[in-house]
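Z., the sequence and structure:
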Amino acid sequence: MIFSLLATSCAHVPIPEASSVAMSYYYTKNLLWILEWLFLFAFPFVFLWTGFSARLASLTKRWLLGIFLYLVVFVLLYELFQLPLSYYADYIVEHKYGLSSQTFGRWFSNYAIGALLTLGGALAFVWLFYLLIKKSPTRWWLYSSLLLIGIEFTLTFVQPVFIDPLFNKFGPMKDKHLEKKILELASSAGIENSRVFEVDKSKDTKTKNAYVTGFGSSGRIVFWDTILKGESEDSILFVTGHEIGHYVLHHIWYFMLYSFASTFLLFYLVYRVSNVVVHRYRRKVHFGDVETIASLPLLILLISFFSFLSLPLNNYLSRIAEHQADIYGLNLTHNNEGAAKFFAKIAEESLMNPSPGPLYVFFRASHPPIAERIAFANSYCPWKERSP
């Protein structure tokens, strides 16, 4: 997406050139992204194809106990084998390029908490999926989709309140003057009784971010303390306008509906393909239907495969939403200079490539490239021409 300049110039912020360090970081993260996806495919494939999954599932004939035992071994082995890659990608590389402020103890603690949450979630819900497969071999994909949608809907509500605080401390903004301006901006957009939170991400990273999350009584705008300490008031107000745009334009609800529709399609595809695979390779995998917990690696492998195929569409829709939020933020604040300077600054400080290649945009970019966002902020100001 290339934006042409309007007749009226709005700002004059140059697009920064990527430094050699930024490009090294860019290539390193791309390689790690590929390795992470390869691991996501390789682990369940090996677990399944070696017959280990079937042997593990056969340790006990008691159905529920067998599922719980299987899940404990599977999740712990997955986290154990993933640990070196996660350590290198999230700790070593981020420290090497000066983007992390996390101690090893804090990193490992967060990794352990994440692993325990994964195990807890698996123990709480996976047996329900297999109960549905057992009770309805031909329609389990439909009922499982409904179950997963219910879980996703619940998590959207409870995550900001109960899960996110396990990793960081969330509290009211310390700068009350800025908080007042943010609340006034939200009020001018028709959002009353807004909730604004500051989170202590400086313990973990030197990068900057803000986001909207939750809905109803759990809905909130969250600012990392790194962005509040290092940005001008104009830039922060533009970011606020951008996040308000996500609320006003109902992006949370639209993406939730898209996620629900995608879930139905995903489970249907997994249902159709898993039956074909099991029928064709039953001697290799040592089980004859997907009702057994031994089929879990196959289902995970198929979910990962179809999720990978959906990345381009997911990213495309996300980029549209982020561009709409940029437009809304500029219309609300008229802070072209603040917006363009914010994009330029985070590009330099976070070692971004302002103009990534088309494959990166296609598979990885959930936001428009920074160069395009700066160009748009420099050029979009219809209010100066009294345009709508």
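The beta strands are 170-171, 196-199, 210-213, 220-224. The first strand starts at residue 170 and ends at 171.

Let me know what you think.
H.
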